[in-house]
Amino acid sequence: MSRKVYIFDTTLRDGEQSPGASMNTDDKLIIARQLLRLHVDAIEAGFPISSPGDFRSVQKIGQLAGDDAAVVALARAVEKDIDCAAEALRGASRPRIHTGLGVSPQHLREKLRISEDECVERARRSVAYAKRYVEDVQFYAEDAGRADQSFLERVVQAAVEAGATVVNIPDTTGCQLPEEFAARIRGLREHVRGIEDVPIAVHTHNDLGMATSLALAGVREGATQVECTINGLGERAGNAALEEVVMALRMHEDALDAHTDVVASELTKASRLVSRVTGMQVQANKAIVGANAFAHSSGIHQDGVLKPRDTYEVIDPDEVGAQGSELILSARSGRAALRHRLADLGYSFPQTEFEGVYRRFLEVADQKKEVFDEDLDSLAQERERDVSAVYTLSSVQVVCGDVATPTATVRITDENGEEHVAAATGAGPVDAAYKAIDQVVAVHGDLHEFVVKAVTRGIDAIGEVTVRIVASGGAVYSGRGSDTDIVVSSAKAYVNALNRLIRTERGDA
User: Fold this and answer.
1) I need a labelling partner for 344 at 20 to 30 A (CA). Which of 6, 187, 324, 335 fits?
2) In 76-210, where does DSSP find H-type helix?
3) Strand 200-204 and strand 225-228: pairing?
C-alpha cells in the first residue's frame, strides 16, 4: 500500500486572496460543505485576526466540519494572532493553528527586519505558544524557496523541537525549479533531527506555471501533505490546483508511492461551485475541470476516442464527475422531484425558502424545454445570495432599439421591506438599468469587468452574468446574476456586487 498524502485545502484562505475573489461567511460555508464531500483532510478556513468575517468563518466551519476534517486558522508568529486563532477554533473538533514567519533574506531584511537568530527564536516561541491552546500546530517557513538551505533547516529544527506537528515549506514566489525544490525537501529529511515523525507539507505557487510539478517533486522526496486550492486560485498566478494534484497522484501512485483519499468524482462539481461563488471563470483548456478538458475537435482525435477512449484520453470523464446521469426537469416536475435533485446536488433549503426556489424554477421551466443541473446550481445559489441581500431586485423593464433611447425602470426592495422605483436612460439597456439602480442604492462602484456566459446549451439557456466593481477605496467586489433575460441577469449581478460592498463596509461580510 502506498503512503497517504494529506490534502490541505486553502481555497478559503489563500484562494480568497485572488483579486476580486473575496468571500463572505455564507459563501465559505457553501464551499466548505463541498470540500467535506471531497474528503479533504484539512480546511484552512481563514485568518481570524484579519477581520470579523474571517473570525466568524473559522468559527462556523469549525462547527460544521466535526471530525471529518481538521479546521485550520492562520496566525502570524505573533501572540495576539495566535490568541485570536485559538478563540475562533474553540468549538472545532479538530482544531489546528497554522503559524510561522518569513525565512528568506528578503523577508528577514525588508519585511521583518530581524536577524537569523531572532527568526529562529520567534519560530520556536510561536509554536510553543500555540501548543498551549491546541495539540495540532503547523509551522510555515514563508518564502522557503529563496531561503538559505542551512538556515531553513535550522528554523525547521527549532519548530520541530518546540512541538510542531506539521512543517510547511512554501515556494511563496513560485520561483524554483522542481528539482531545486525537491532538493530542499530532501535536505530537511536528511538534516533535521526528529523530522521523520513530523509530516512535511508543501505549498507551491504558479508564477512560472509549475505549481503542480513543484508539489509532486516535494511528494517524491517525502512530503506527505500538499496545500492546494480548487481551480488553482490564489495570489498572483495562484496555487497548485487541487484537482491536478489529486489526479496526478491517482495516475502515478506507483511511481510516487503516494495516494490521497479525495473523492475524485466530486472534483468537477467543486470546480463549478467555486467558480460561481468567487466569480473567477475557469479557462476552457484548464486541466481536469476546464470545459475543453474532454472535448475533441480534430477529426483524427474524434475517430480515436470513438474507438478505445484511452487513445487520446488518459482520464475517464466520469472519474472526475464531468459526465454522468442527468435528471431532466421540466415545468411538469413537482416539488418532490425538484427537492430530490437539489439534494443530490448538495443543496438544502427550509420549506419557506424552498417555495421561493420552486417558484423561480417554474419561471425558468416555462421558458425552457429542459432544466439542467447547471440551471439548478445557478437558481439555488441565486436564492442563497438573495436571502442575505440588503437590496433585492424585484423587477426590471427596458425599452431599447436602434431608434429608441434605451430606458430602464427598476423596482427594488430594501432589507426593511420598503419598495423603491427608479427610471433612467443610458447608452444601452444594461447601462440604463445600472443608472436606475444607482438612484436607489446608497453606494456606487465603478464597473471594472462584465462577463456573460450561457449556463447550459441551447438558445433558451440561462445567461449568467459576472461583474466586478471597484469601490472608492480600490477594493474589488464581484457579483453574479442569472436569468433567461441577459438584461435581468446583468441587473441582478450589479445589485449582488453592491450588496457585497455594503455588507463589507458595515462589517457583516
Assistant:
1) 6
2) 79-88, 105-106, 116-131, 149-161, 178-191
3) parallel
Contact 264, 316 (CB under 8 A): no
Residue type, 483: D
Nearest C-alpha neighbor of 70 from the set 41, 46, 90, 108: 41
Amino acid at site 144: A
Q: What does residue 154 show for φ and ψ, rounded to 5 degrees?
A: -65, -45
Pairing of strands 476-483, 463-470: antiparallel
Q: Name all contacts of 494-497 with Cβ < 8 Å and 24+ positions apart.
A: 494/433, 494/434, 494/437, 494/447, 494/467, 494/469, 495/389, 495/391, 495/392, 495/393, 495/412, 495/437, 495/441, 496/385, 496/389, 497/445, 497/467, 497/468, 497/469
| Alpha-carbon gap, residue 496 to 441, rounded angstroms | 11
Q: Determine if the pTM surpasses 0.70.
A: yes
State how far the alpha carbon of 32 is from the alpha carbons of 59, 136, 281, 376, in Å.
12, 20, 19, 19
Backbone φ and ψ of 267, nearest 5°: -65, -45
C-alpha grid cell, residue 345:
446536488
Identity of the amino acid at 338: L
Alpha helices in 227-334 (DSSP H): 242-251, 253-256, 267-278, 299-306
Determine the residue type at 77: A
- For residue 97, give the nearest of 129, 72, 128, 132 by alpha carbon: 72
Per DSSP bridges, beta strands 70-76 and 42-46 are parallel
Three-state SS letters, 98-112: EEEEECCHHHHHHHH
DSSP assignment string, 393-427: EEEEEEEEETTEEEEEEEEEEETTS-EEEEEEE-S
- Locate 65 and state its grid cell: 466540519
Q: Which three cell numbers stand for residue 417?
A: 421591506
What is the residue-level pLDDT of the chain in tens, covering all 509 positions? 899 999 999 999 998 888 777 788 999 999 999 999 999 999 999 999 999 999 999 999 999 999 999 999 999 999 999 999 999 999 999 999 999 999 999 999 999 999 999 999 999 999 999 999 999 999 999 999 999 999 999 999 999 999 999 999 999 999 999 999 999 999 999 999 999 999 999 999 999 999 999 999 999 999 999 999 999 999 999 999 999 999 999 999 999 999 999 999 999 999 999 998 998 888 888 999 887 776 543 333 333 433 455 555 667 877 888 753 344 577 777 787 788 778 777 777 888 888 888 888 888 888 766 777 767 777 777 665 555 678 989 999 999 988 889 999 999 999 888 999 999 999 999 999 999 999 999 788 888 889 888 766 666 677 888 898 988 888 888 888 888 888 999 999 899 889 888 888 877 65
469, with CB counted inside 10 A (0-12, 13-18, 19+), is buried
